[in-house]
Amino acid sequence: MSEDEKKFLEIVDLKKGFGSGETRQEVLRGMNFSVAKGEFCVLLGPSGSGKSTLLNHIAPELELKTAEISRKLGRGRHTTRVSRLYKLFGGYIADTPGFSAFDTERMELVHKEQLQYAFPEFAPYLGHCQFPDCAHRKEPGCAIRKALAEGEIGQTRYDSYERLYELASQLKEWELK
Fold this sequence. Notes:
The protein is of the alpha+beta class.
């Protein structure tokens, strides 16, 4: 069976944004993923990130309840309150409630040099920087920052990378063992 025959769901170049005109804010750009037959896929992310909306687009018969982002708070409204598993396209997809905070205290620590690999949208540009040890922050000839300037990488994702890089830079070597 070929790789394409194993896939039951493939999403290519997914984009999501809020607002319109000058106030439009793109929160997701160029996301690709696929799930093979028989596999389980779990959609998780912050409240209002579009997990249920995505499921409604690929399986309208689910008629999942969704809501607009709160204009007052600028975030999701916790419309999905329980996790549900749906049998779709030969596999299973779980829709989960959003979260408003993400506790990283118990996560595995990552070396700052390895952090770039945690951002899938960076993958096409890795290895194309002027310097092989590029941190993708201030170095000239950085392919990641060039992609950011050209709109190929979302500003919020890059900002997340910078914040996490700064935190990872503060870790002592003994803390990583």
